[in-house]
Design a protein that fits this description.
Layout: H1 2-10, H2 17-22, H3 27-30, H4 36-59, H5 73-87, H6 92-112, H7 129-138, H8 144-164, H9 176-191, E1 194-214, E2 217-234, E3 242-257, E4 303-309, H10 310-315, H11 318-321, H12 325-333, H13 342-362, H14 366-369, H15 374-381, E5 389-407, E6 410-427, E7 430-433, E8 439-450, E9 495-501, H16 502-511, E10 516-519, H17 531-543, H18 551-563, H19 572-579, H20 591-605, H21 613-628
Antiparallel strand pairs: 1-2, 2-3, 3-4, 5-6, 5-10, 6-7, 6-8, 8-9
Helix pairs in contact: 4-6, 5-6, 9-13, 17-18, 17-20, 20-21
Length: 630
């Protein structure tokens, strides 16, 4: 009875004391503090109670507004304060109340700062020593400094190759998927007569952030802190010119087979197997001309397999998914397949996805024919959504395996592909932006392969026949010209069987749930993002919509950051991205959240009393793309 009365009283107003008295409970003996220990105990209990009330009120609320005008929390807190004034002797009553208010404010501030954006890296971190030590225990010959020297070399050379639109010299140590990401953008840039000029490239820091095991492969995620002057220039369409100085952190992921003796693809131009000189003009295939060894599969050295921007790396669920229950189950499922790794599947998915987009933009179905099913080919070939359209920007932000299932004697994997894009309409000799800024979206690539596959001798995604390793050209013919094997067969290669939007995939998942071996909710890909995080990101895009993120706008952004609980130093990278025009509009899949975010964006645009034409165009574009078209 004693504990019940105390607890019940704490959550009610001062008037409840009469009920306690009417039950003839002596209040002094129940609660009256006789020492500082009693006061401390009561203080802790009350603090927890108040904090619990505060958290509950915010959890279902519509933002960081005041709680005034409502019932419950405010009255309870007032009752508690009155009660403390009378029940705790002076001056301890005011000391306890002051501490409660102070710690309540601190707790509220800490809760507001529990946001993914406050985890953005500043670039000055060091190697994650515990991660490195764990890896060294199993790989004592690993030299972290020598590895980082290769990363530094790869970073600089790949930037140079990108500017020249020629990946030949670096092809030997980048995956097929990474090559396709760059090659796709080159094709779009050529249509728009664009160049990406790079100057003053400086690497300021490189550190190892995470090391993962993935099937028979190891993956090292490395943070690269650098500065650059980066400008897109087109003489034909100068209205699309953009860029400027930028300071950033990117995460580069390198993959290597376990247990191999590491060679040196970075400082040698010779084949790691036979020693012959490798071609400097390698294209779709990174292969020795003499012994036909593929150099970029992780058999001889660390291979670049992914580049991720800091906000995606920190905020997207995928970067921990390989250590999750999904990854464990999937690797167990394919334990007998020596060529399987989640990273490899994600690489194939990104490769296929971009080649499909290229095929649709160029109206050339031969580009995608070899690696898509007959049903999907027919579906995509009849899709006219990209007619007269080219991508001014097309980047893959994140590629994540989200489920595994079995159907009709085949393994089926679902890979979520998150992209950033900006479309241009080419018509009657004119080029017009369809998207006023870079937008983002997520689609799911479905890939299938036989449960008991035949040994693959090559990758369709690198123009190699899996059955005989013969070269494959872009062609509608799905028969290998050397061995006659059916190219888009799932007997020994992962074939793309469908591409779905988020809602379509969710329906598919619900309807076929019994077939799934493992999976995660696709909406969790950005589960760490809150409405305010999306809104803050998009508000910065709005502020920079006129091509100028001025000091006044930066000042407003800092004030907004402080109001919403962001640490100003942590969101500086976002300011820099906004200034250079590199920040991407983000939206969750939930329509109600999208409407809230758009309203916050409109308020931010009107903060100086007017909405510029550029800002209005952006807001209308976002409304049409994410709300009306959804």
């Amino acid at each position: 009875m004693r504990n019940f009365c105390q607890t019940k009283y704490i959550f009610h107003t001062f008037g409840y004391c009469h009920i306690i008295k009417s039950e003839r409970v002596k209040m002094k003996k129940i609660i009256f503090p006789k020492s500082l220990i009693n006061i401390a105990a009561l203080f802790v209990f009350i603090l927890i109670s108040i904090y619990a009330i505060d958290v509950f009120a915010r959890a279902g609320g519509g933002g960081g507004g005041s709680h005034s005008g409502g019932s419950g929390g405010g009255g309870d807190l007032f009752g508690i304060i009155i009660y403390l004034i009378f029940i705790i002797p002076f001056p301890w009553n005011f000391v306890v109340i002051g501490l409660i208010i102070l710690l309540g404010w601190w707790g509220n501030k800490q809760n507001k700062q529990q946001t993914v954006l406050n985890q953005l890296p500043l670039g000055d971190s060091q190697d994650k020593q515990r991660t490195l030590n764990n890896y060294l225990t199993k790989n004592p010959d690993f030299n972290a400094e020598a590895f980082k020297a290769k990363v530094n070399q790869a970073f600089i050379r790949i930037q140079e190759a990108w500017m020249m639109k020629d990946m030949g010299k670096v092809r030997k140590y980048i995956s097929d998927g990474m090559y396709q990401r760059m090659n796709t953008q080159f094709k779009m840039m050529n249509i728009l007569d664009q160049k990406n000029l790079i100057d003053n490239l400086k690497v300021k820091n490189i550190y190892i952030d995470k090391i993962e095991s993935d099937g028979n492969f190891d993956i090292i995620h490395v943070a690269i802190y650098a500065s650059i002057v980066d400008r897109f220039v087109s003489q034909k369409y100068p209205q699309f010119n953009s860029g400027g100085s930028e300071e950033f952190v990117e995460y580069w992921s390198f993959i290597k087979k376990k247990g191999i003796k590491v060679g040196d693809l970075y400082n040698s131009q010779n084949c790691p197997k036979c020693g012959a000189e490798l071609s400097k003009n390698a294209g779709d295939v990174s292969q020795c001309d003499y012994c036909h060894t593929y150099t970029n599969l992780g058999d001889y050295d660390w291979i670049l397999s992914e580049i991720t921007q800091a906000d995606d790396y920190i905020g997207v669920y995928s970067k921990t998914s390989k250590e999750s229950n999904l990854a464990t189950k999937v690797n167990e499922l394919f334990a007998t397949n020596e060529d399987f790794s989640i990273q490899n599947i994600e690489d194939k998915a990104s490769n296929g996805y971009l080649q499909i987009l290229t095929s649709k933009v160029l109206k050339n179905p031969t580009i995608m024919r070899r690696f898509v099913s007959d049903e999907l080919f027919e579906k995509l070939n009849n899709d006219n959504s990209l007619d007269n359209t080219v991508f001014n920007r097309i980047f893959l932000n994140d590629v994540t395996l989200i489920s595994a299932s079995r159907r009709n004697d085949k393994n089926v994997l679902a890979i979520a592909v998150k992209s950033s894009y900006q479309r241009v309409l080419l018509k009657d000799g004119k080029a017009t932006l369809i998207d006023s800024v870079v937008m983002s979206m997520t689609e799911t690539v479905m890939m299938s392969r036989d449960i008991n596959p035949q040994l693959s001798k090559g990758s369709l995604y690198a123009h190699v026949c899996p059955a005989c390793a013969g070269p494959v050209k872009d062609t509608i013919d799905i028969k290998c010209q050397y061995c006659g094997a059916e190219l888009n067969s799932s007997k020994n290669e992962w074939i793309v069987t469908d591409i779905m939007g988020v809602s379509e995939y969710q329906n598919y998942y619900r309807e076929n749930k019994d077939e799934f071996v493992a999976g995660v909710n696709i909406e969790k890909l950005e589960s760490l993002y809150d409405v305010r995080d999306y809104a803050f990101n998009n508000v910065l895009v709005v502020m920079a919509a006129d091509g100028n993120f001025a000091e006044q706008e930066r000042g407003l952004a800092v004030k907004l950051a402080n109001k919403w609980g962001y640490k100003a130093d942590r969101v500086v990278p976002m300011f820099n991205l906004a200034k250079s025009g590199s920040l991407v509009v983000r939206m969750p899949e939930d329509q109600k959240k999208r409407v809230k975010i758009l309203k916050l964006m409109e308020k931010a645009a009107n903060i100086d009393g007017m909405i510029s034409p550029e800002e209005r165009a952006l807001l209308d574009n976002v409304k049409m793309q994410y709300i009306q078209a959804a």
